Amino acid sequence: MNTETLELQFTCTELQNDASKLRPPSWPPPPDWAPIVDAAGKPVCKFSDSTWPLDVWAGHPLKVNFGDGKIKSGSARIDPANAHLLRQCAAWFIFGPRGCRTAGSLADKVTFIKPFFIACSKQGILASDLIRFPTVIDEVAALLQPSKFGDVIKTLQDLLDAQDQLGFCLLNNEGLKRLTKLRPKHLPKQTPYIPPRIWTYQLNRFRQCLQDYIKHKDSIEKCFQFCVDAYAHNAGSLRNAMRSTTNASLSPFQNRKSTCSFSYLGNFNIAADHFGIRELLELWVGPFTKNKGEKQISKLSQYLDLVSWAGMGYLMNFSLMRIEEGISMRSDCLLIEHDDVYGDIHMLAGETTKTDSDSDARWPVSKSATIAIDAMKHISRMRVKCAVAHGELGVTDQEIINPFLISYQYEPWSKSKQKSYALRPLPKSYKDLVEQYPLFIEKSEITINAEDLRMARYITPTLNPDVFRIGAVWTFGWHQLRRTGAVNMLSSDLVDESSLQLQLKHIGRLMTLYYGRNHSRVTLSQETRSFFLKTMDEEAVRTIGTLTSPQLISPLGDARKESIISWIKDADARALIKAIKQGSISARPIRVGFCVNNRPCPYGGIESITHCLGGNDSKGCPDLLIDVGKETSINIYEKVVDNQLSEVHPGSPRHDSLMGEKRAISKFYAIVKAQNR
Prior knowledge:
Blueprint: H1 17-20, E1 51-53, H2 55-58, E2 63-65, H3 80-95, H4 103-123, H5 134-143, H6 149-161, H7 163-166, H8 173-181, H9 196-235, H10 238-243, H11 268-274, H12 278-285, H13 298-317, H14 323-326, E3 334-339, E4 343-352, E5 358-365, H15 369-390, H16 397-401, H17 430-436, H18 450-459, H19 478-490, H20 499-516, H21 526-545, E6 552-553, H22 558-565, H23 573-582, E7 588-590, E8 593-595, H24 610-613, E9 624-627, H25 631-645, H26 653-675
Antiparallel strand pairs: 1-2, 3-4, 4-5, 6-9, 7-8, 8-9
């Protein structure tokens, strides 16, 4: 192979020009060659190593393990010969003409094909000879995740296309056909929608946590600095304290007698009392105990972590951001742009690489996001000072000014104080956050009741009944916040109109504004836009699906309703989405039910229902489906109409209009009464 055709494809800003020109000197690459180098061009592994660290490219801890070295308990081993072939595939994924552009996609591709190498090792055969053993192909096919089956086939096809350069392939065309026939049916499951009661509770807890921090932030900073200075005193300098590892005598918070070299201040709870934050720490991370082995000062770091992740959760509730995008946000991420129509629009600015790489994407958020940014920024600036003092963690001048909102614990008493600052922490899952901080989310408050389950299933019919059931504790995931936020933006009439839900309606308006403003100076994340539009399609299908409900009736009779819904009954989601996009069908919520007119209506059905129900003695609109469940809201509307009638002059145009509304309301009641007989 002519190795001059090989080239590193990664879009990584950490790579310098010399490093980006890295390529194998021969094929297969020699065992001692370095396939991965850091920003300075320093090798971080050899080709023959059993693991390749991708941290320098990923920006967070990430490795690929080829299975012929140290492996986790319960993991399958790969023999050296097959591991060598797997390494060649990985190198091709990096340097080939269609090489991976991110470390995550490289790790995924290795994961997709690794089961074939494991199976071959178990059978004592080479993966390059796999096509001769069809039963092994069948064995692997049964183990592949249905949701990833297509990705596996695509990756194998890429390797087949490159077999002349690689010198081997895993499956030829016949093998791929055999594997494709074994592809199981896969029904993708939607991310669960969080019911309004539980959603509101968790959002309030995020906000309460942030409010408590802001209220005490000056005292927290004083206590934090006091502790840092105490460690620096015992170590001789903060730099020494940051670089120390196992010297227990450096800890100032011990019940020991001070010496000329070391000062001991007693247990940390004494300092927490002194600065007035003990009650705050115990409220959120638990009480101090008298256990001899307890490292009390760790509660301060745990609390700072909780507040940082509470801020992240709060931001994600008010945006369609992915958690991976969130942890890359920096302190200056909150922008405010003024619009002549809508006023100040608050946005988060950051980087997304999920689809098209965008280093300056935007996510509109509520103005209340300021409290989260303020708290997270305060914590990050305290911690970055410690990281700078270490001297060798790679903190740049720009990062001192504009640190990450989420970072490792860089306190001198923390175990993670030696980690590179450029290395992003792995995202903490929402579920782990709830488990790690039992005082943060009261499980009794997120126990699913009948109404919660009804709402959750209404939006997500594919909910796992073993996980989401009455009496079970709701299992959170960050992606649920994206899903729930998108649904609420598009259908906020399904939930209680609390102030929190009204804030979501406001966000929906801003999102729509930004999608429509082609002249805007900034753009939304492409994936955010796609996610929002996909949810619009899902919500439109769900709305149209409700038209078949017996709760909806036509004022012109059953035959008219049947003509409206006849083809909806048999249509699948794809056909409905196509019809919606073509404009051949629609279902617009109005005051008394739904309007299925797919053309603009001059009467609306929002402020007036006279023409919908024929309040002026006509038969009513043929495109109307009345929702008999709206009787309560019509009762309220009737009182509004009566109040207005008492204030207008009889015979005036406004009086005549309101009387038309009264007649329409009476027709609504008559239809509902007839339906309930």
